[in-house]
Amino acid sequence: MAGRLVYNSEDRIRPFAGVSHFFGLAGAAMGVNAQMPLSLPETATRKGFSMTSLELAQKMVKILDGKKATDIKLIDIRGLSTLGDYFLLASASNTTLTKSLSDELEERLSKEDGLEPKRIEGYQSASWILLDYYDVIVHIFYAETRQYYSLERLWADGKEVDLSGLLAKEE
Question: Are 101 and 69 in contact (CB under 8 A)?
Fold first, then answer.
């Protein structure tokens, strides 16, 4: 059991102990003990924040790309899981960069949009940092860790979103 359920009218019903605490990051990423969502409109407002989950994910892609993340992928998991609407995956060449990407994303979204992540996991080890932004779950990996867990393969039923118009052209 993941623990008692806690309800906050501004977000979702979530297990009190949290999926990632009970099963670890891999369990949360694979949808083990998935959480039951409340009905939220496509555009959810939290603390004055109003943006669709796709718009939020696209903004996150631009932030991570601008900070030199590599192999950025956005997977549409709507209809496949109650964890959220999108998984955003990005890689970094070292653990210092994984922390830097996480810090930049958290700082920019907080300052520009007043949006804070519900939960952050894995920051200390920095080989896989998970940021839960309600409907967009961000996975920032050290490149070797990403290859090992291969979330793209685990979520192959999800639709990959075309990011060609969002990513900076490599020279």
Answer: yes
